[in-house]
UniProtKB/TrEMBL annotation:
Protein name, per record: Lipoprotein LprG
Species for this entry: Terrabacter lapilli
Keyword Signal: yes
Signal peptide: 1-23
Span list, region Disordered: 28-60
Length: 260
């Protein structure tokens, strides 16, 4: 389970870089070859400091089987119409911070990501297009013209063809990456019980223990509440707003600059 958080976040960094390059390119075809190893992030929300109480090391009374909890959590997550998560992941010695909210199909998303050494970026995907905001470091890494590098907090509208990349921004895409990193065979049979920010959760862990990755799932709805990484790949993603109206809108026209 050690790559559970990292895989969910790395795709967003790669996508932000690809979209940033596309926005600055004369070509209408955005590249999708950005390496996920380039993704590092520090975004809008910091990792949740929600209190966690209880034990994940002993069998909780009345707990379902770990494999059943995993299956139900995956089913509910992938069936959700929308959701949000925020947190921090360390990748190859670099810190990635991310704040994500969006729909399952990726047509609507608002993602802030800060990549250590690669700058900060924000991607908003709505019906009329994809908008990218970045700091000077981010745009310089994309080879952006001086006008863009000096844009401050303004957004750049990506080429129309970038809409084809919105699937990479989908909640489902992130969740598939995350759940793809864990199988029932990797999960310990022991199920723990903890409270995360006031939510009573079942806790399933790697066979080597909670320190090698854990999944916190609400007892009442089997919704994912938290992913945690391992000692070698530390990280934490806290989830919220399942199936909620996230209120994502395009930036105001005054906040968008033209490259023309």
């Amino acid at each position: 389970m050690k790559n559970l958080t990292m895989r969910a976040v790395a795709v967003s960094g790669a996508c932000a870089i690809a979209l940033g390059a596309a926005a600055c390119s004369k070509s209408e075809t955005p590249t999708t070859t950005a390496s996920s190893s380039s993704a590092g992030a520090g975004a809008g929300r910091s990792p949740s400091s929600s209190a966690t109480t209880g034990s994940a090391s002993t069998d909780a009374k009345g707990a379902p089987q770990a494999a059943d909890i995993l299956a139900k959590a995956k089913t509910h997550a992938l069936a959700a119409s929308s959701g949000a998560f925020a947190g921090q992941v360390d990748q190859n010695g670099k810190t990635i911070n991310i704040d994500f909210k969006g729909t399952s199909d990726g047509k609507t998303a608002d993602i802030s990501i800060e990549m250590e050494g690669d700058g900060k970026a924000r991607v908003i995907s709505v019906a009329d297009g994809v908008y990218i905001q970045g700091d000077a470091t981010f745009w310089k890494k994309q080879g952006a013209p001086a006008k863009v590098q000096n844009a401050g907090d303004k957004f750049i509208k990506a080429p129309a063809s970038a809409a084809a990349m919105t699937q990479s921004l989908s909640l489902k895409s992130f969740l598939q990456k995350a759940f793809g990193a864990v199988t029932p065979q990797q999960v310990a049979k022991t199920v723990g019980s903890k409270s995360v920010g006031g939510v009573d959760c079942w806790v399933i862990t790697d066979k080597k223990g909670e320190g090698e990755g854990a999944l916190y799932v609400s007892k009442d709805t089997f919704q994912v509440v938290r992913f945690t990484g391992s000692k070698s790949n530390p990280g934490q993603l806290d989830f919220s707003d399942w199936n909620a109206d996230l209120g994502i809108k395009a930036p105001a026209a005054s906040q968008v600059i033209s490259l023309g």
